[in-house]
UniProtKB/TrEMBL annotation:
Molecular function terms from GO: oxidoreductase activity, acting on the CH-OH group of donors, NAD or NADP as acceptor
Entry keyword Transferase: no
Keyword check for S-adenosyl-L-methionine: no
Family under the similarity heading: Belongs to the short-chain dehydrogenases/reductases (SDR) family.
Organism, as annotated: Flammeovirga agarivorans
CDD domains given in the database record: carb_red_PTCR-like_SDR_c (cd05324)
Membrane-spanning parts: none
Record-linked InterPro entries: CBR1-like (IPR045313), NAD(P)-bd_dom_sf (IPR036291), SDR_fam (IPR002347)
Name this protein carries in UniProt: SDR family oxidoreductase
Cited Pfam families: adh_short
Keywords associated with the record: NADP, Oxidoreductase
Stretches assigned to coiled coil: none
Length: 244
């Protein structure tokens, strides 16, 4: 039976390219999108390239949609081999070149954490029984170097002045989830890692980013593959560890 992958936020950007690259490896990809119309367009594009992909509806902050999706995957496929927690947001009131910790609103903090952290925990916990049925389960959490407290506290770092607090804190929390979940699953067939894709030309990264989307997806895809067994409970970019 084909390996089954679920990629959240797969209708555009890194999620779309991750789905494309996994599909090119012969993996069946469930492309999760909260916008059905945009999801359908993305799926048809990859189907036209001969890839085995399928649209699944998912608003990641909806517990009911998470449970419905889990039931669908279980009934149709009986297992899940790869979970790429790609969906994420950065609010427009957090300009990259500023430090928002003095004035960030509680509503922006809550909304950012709802998408970037709480939804990932909820979805992953719900799907763990299916991942444990895989011969080589993989959980990839899309993080960012901006979530590295080592980098954020280093005055010599080129990222030191880039401090959108809600976004950075949500990714730091996500990294903590990676460390804890990997430890909890030690000795099982499921590996859990955080991926730093790099500064990529996406809606979030802007056109000023130096990396193309095709390269930004490579870290997630590598961590998703069965042969990538060297990393567990790590923060990775292009095959190299990133400091927490």
């Amino acid at each position: 039976m084909k390996r089954i992958a679920l990629v959240t936020g797969a209708n555009k950007g890194l999620g779309f390219e991750t789905a494309r690259q996994l599909g090119a490896k012969g993996i069946k990809v469930l492309m999760a999108s909260r916008d059905k119309s945009k999801g359908e367009t993305a799926v048809e594009k990859l189907k036209s390239e001969g890839l085995d992909v399928e649209l699944v509806q998912l608003e990641v902050t909806s517990n009911s949609e998470i449970k419905t999706l889990k039931g669908y995957i279980e009934s149709q496929y009986g297992k899940l081999d790869i979970l790429v927690n790609n969906a994420g947001i950065m609010h427009q009131d957090e300009p990259l070149g500023t430090n928002t910790s003095e004035n960030i609103s509680s509503s922006t903090l809550q909304n950012t954490f709802d998408v970037n952290f709480f939804s990932v925990v909820n979805l992953t916990q719900e799907l763990l029984p299916l991942l444990k049925k895989s011969d080589a389960g993989r959980v990839v959490n899309l993080s960012s170097i901006l979530g590295s407290n080592t980098v954020q506290s280093d005055t010599e770092s080129p990222y030191y002045s880039v401090k959108p607090f809600a976004y950075d804190a949500s990714k730091a929390a996500l990294n903590s989830f990676t460390v804890h979940l990997a430890a909890a699953l030690e000795g099982t067939n499921v590996n859990v890692n955080s991926a730093h894709p790099g500064w990529v030309k996406t809606d979030l990264g802007t056109d000023g980013a130096p990396m193309e989307v095709v390269d930004g997806a490579k870290t997630s895809v590598s961590l998703s593959l069965e042969e990538e067994t060297d990393f567990n409970g790590k923060f990775i970019h292009m095959g190299e560890e990133v400091a927490w």
